[in-house]
């Protein structure tokens, strides 16, 4: 992604006589592998290949958006810009870790028959608040997704035991089914709205 972005930026700059920053900003969207397209298309691949495509496209999306926003929102790229960006990343990493632990705990302890929609709403709320404060909210989505998607690998850590990982795995599978159905509904409504 980075190699292609710099190559395209050089071409835009060389042939279009644009500034390199503007050229790089415009090149990045061409280099992102969209997870919205890649993830639904991997259903019939081998598990190892499926995992690779899911992680690669998700990281491509998130890194692409982070870099694009960094370039687009900073009039000039200087040391202060990198410092501000690093501080934003540090804050969102801490918030993401705490929110992921809290949401996972809620997911494992809520006994009520309505538990998944409040969790989804809390995820959307955390993402929206992070956007209000100009924090890279996609980092939270990535960390939360990586955590609940890799519970089996995390069981070896003692602090995970407090979340009751076996019970949490069952709830995560139900949660995943709900999210897949919800994502399909949103996409279908989007295309229906476009068609009318």
Please provide a written account of the structure.
It is a single chain. The protein has 196 residues and is mainly α. It folds into 2 domains: 1-77, no CATH class; 78-196, no CATH class. Helices cover 79% and strands 0% of the residues. The chain contains 9 helices and no strands. It has helices at residues 2-16, 20-31, 35-38, 47-73, 79-109, 116-132, 137-149, 151-154, 165-195. The longest helix is centred in the middle third of the chain and has 31 residues, at 79-109.
What's the quick description here?
By secondary structure, this protein is mostly helical.
CA radius of gyration: 19 Å
Mean pLDDT: 84
What is the straight-line distance between the termini?
Answer: 36 Å
The helical percent reads over 70%
Q: Could you list some keywords that capture this structure?
A:
9 helices; 0% strand; 2 domains; mainly alpha; 79% helix; 196 residues
SSE inventory with pairings:
Blueprint: H1 2-16, H2 20-31, H3 35-38, H4 47-73, H5 79-109, H6 116-132, H7 137-149, H8 151-154, H9 165-195
């Amino acid at each position: 992604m980075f190699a292609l972005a710099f190559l395209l930026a050089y071409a835009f700059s060389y042939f279009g006589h644009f500034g390199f920053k503007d050229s790089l900003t415009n090149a990045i969207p061409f280099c992102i592998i969209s997870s919205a397209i890649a993830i639904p298309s991997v259903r019939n691949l081998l598990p190892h290949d499926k995992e690779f495509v899911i992680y690669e496209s998700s990281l491509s999306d998130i890194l692409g958006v982070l870099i694009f926003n960094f370039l687009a929102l900073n009039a000039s790229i200087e040391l202060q810009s990198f410092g501000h960006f690093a501080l934003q990343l540090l804050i969102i990493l801490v918030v993401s870790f705490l929110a992921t632990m809290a949401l996972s705990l809620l997911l494992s302890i809520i006994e009520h028959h309505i538990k998944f929609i409040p969790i989804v709403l809390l995820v959307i709320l955390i993402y929206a608040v992070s956007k209000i404060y100009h924090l890279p909210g996609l980092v939270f989505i990535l960390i939360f997704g990586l955590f609940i998607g890799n519970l089996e690998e995390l069981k070896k850590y003692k602090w995970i035991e407090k979340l009751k990982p076996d019970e949490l795995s069952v709830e995560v599978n139900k949660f995943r089914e709900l999210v897949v159905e919800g994502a399909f509904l949103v996409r279908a409504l989007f295309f229906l709205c476009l068609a009318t």
